[in-house]
Structures are given as C-alpha cells and as structure tokens.
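Incident log, structure service

09:12 report received: a user says their structure output differs between two submissions of the same chain.
09:20 pulled the input from the user's history:
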Amino acid sequence: MEDRIPETPLFDRSRQRRGYRLNKMAMGLVDPANREAFRTDEEAYLDRFGLSAEEKQAVMARNWQEMVRLGGNVFYILKISAISPARMTEIGAHQAGMDHETFLRERLGKKPAGGR
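09:34 re-ran on a clean worker, output below:
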C-alpha cells in the first residue's frame, strides 16, 4: 500500500479493509467485560479477534503510528488509550515522531512544564 503523502497513512478503502480486525477489536472495548478481558490477558483478547502477529505487536507496544499504518481508524484505536491512559497530545507526538515536550512546544505553541 503506497501513501500519496510521505509518511502519512491515508485511511482509504484498502486500508480500511486491511484494518477490519484491528478496528473490530478496538471497538469491542466499549463493553466493560471486554475492557476487563483486555486488562487481564491482553494477548488472549487480541487472539479472539484474529489479529496478525504484526497487529498484536503494534497494540501491545502501544505503537499508535503502526496501528494506523496497519489500518487502524484513529477513532477506534483511541479506545485502547482508555485502558492504557495516554493523553491525546502524547499520541500526537508519537504519530509525529517527536517527544511530548517538543510536540507541545512546536506543534501547539505550549511551554514545557516548569515554564521554560
């Protein structure tokens, strides 16, 4: 799958189809019983949805950028951040390949903690 914008995965029909299992798994996390199953045995929960080894590795590493590349819809994969708390700006920094403080400063114009 080739993206037209360098280093920016386009969520098109092909990627949507590719990410079906990943997105279905993530949407399952709206159910409290599924969230508990995810917390208790994450790998077993992922196996229930037939995720590939590559998809499982991306989820277990909380590699947001890779999940999107593999077809994860950002709105669905954010459900994972409800279990493993991650601020939206942390996910944005990861997507941009930046550390959180640099992302806040350069992308959002915010000063780092401590007012420097």
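09:41 both user submissions now match this output. Likely a transient worker issue. Closing.
09:42 reviewer note: The mean pLDDT is 82. The radius of gyration is 15 Å.
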